[in-house]
Amino acid sequence: SAASDVDNRRLYMCAQQGKGAMAAELLHFGADPDLTHQHKNPALPAKMTPLIVALCNGHLEMVAMLMNAGAEMIPKDCAMVLERIQRTGQTLLHPHQRKLTQRQIKQLKALTTGLAVSHLLAMAADSCTSSRSRSSSDIRAHYQAAQKAERQRDYRTALRHVADAESSLQI
Hints:
The protein has eight helices and two strands. The protein is mostly helical and 171 residues long.
């Protein structure tokens, strides 16, 4: 059954506050992990999903839970958030701002990039079974480049390759 607007807003708040148990229950009852809210801060993505909110606030478990629930990952938005966290050394949304250790920042990057690369692998598999042979070779090349960048801990480049692969699917 579909969740109500109230439940969808609750999921957004759970992502912001890192309340995993409540978020899991809301997702189980059909809350939309891709619900967007407009955001006016130009340093952040214009449309904030629960995934981006959880990432902004450094909630690793919440990011993983939302991805596993099918939340859409927008690599350029994730890269923007990760770059800003790296630059400032803290979470991004008020009133929940807090300092992050370098270890926490690396964990966020690794988790987000790992999930993005997994997403890219799934896209490559789907593309290989479709009739677009050109896009499947493009996706495969981007996947290999993303894996190489991830091994070198160049998370921004890895996420850029995921975004490029998604663009090649929309030709």
